[in-house]
Design goal:
about 190 residues, mainly alpha, UraD-like, 10 helices, globular
Length: about 190
């Protein structure tokens, strides 16, 4: 379901874009978290996508907590309705691999419904405990495994959980960049080559 029209500019182009164009270009990597992307834009030039992602980690961990929480909350809930997530999140959450309601057996559909309810409960508990969404670099893991990780996270220290979520957001962006494919293969050095 990744939109084949999704195209990232070369790093040379990205480094020279105005703020609105830069924000639009990187929205796909960071779920449209415009405040965060604007902060990242202020640190240009990057030279390579690797350097941009590395800098994104520093920016995410250093910005005020209100902006950190906005970055975290820009990501959809685990198990959010498929129509409510971005095309990349749709793939990351496994909706593209899930059989439709017509091909699922009654037992499979019942198990999916129980998991949806469990994820909703865990999302609610996480948000009530920490004040921000549960975000994780899914990396192809089934939702049952994610549910176990969500359950375990409820015992974490708030600051540690926030830092973990921010680190995972950067890994999500790095993975999205890998899947989309930077036109310069992560480095402007290849353009100049």
């Amino acid at each position: 379901m990744t939109d084949p029209a999704t195209r990232l500019p070369s790093m040379r182009e990205l480094d020279q874009m105005d703020l609105a164009s830069f924000t639009a270009a990187l929205g796909v990597l960071f779920e449209g978290a415009t405040s965060f992307v604007a902060r990242l834009a202020a640190d240009r030039p990057f030279g390579t996508y690797d350097q941009m992602v590395d800098r994104a980690r520093v920016v995410a961990l250093a910005m005020p907590e209100t902006e950190q929480l906005a970055l975290i909350d820009a990501h959809p809930r685990i198990g959010a309705p498929p129509a409510a997530v971005s095309p990349l999140s749709y793939e990351e959450q496994g909706y593209d691999r899930e059989p439709d309601g017509l091909s699922a057996t009654a037992d499979e559909e019942a198990a999916r419904q129980r998991l949806r309810l469990d994820l909703e409960r865990l999302n609610d508990a996480h948000e009530a405990r920490f004040g921000f969404r549960f975000v994780i670099f899914v990396a192809g893991r089934p939702r049952q495994d994610i549910a176990k990780h969500m359950e375990a996270s409820l015992g974490a220290d708030r600051e540690a959980e926030k830092r973990r979520a921010l680190a995972d957001i950067i890994e999500i962006a790095r993975d999205r960049l890998r899947r989309i494919g930077a036109p310069d293969g992560w480095s402007t050095a290849k353009e100049a080559g």
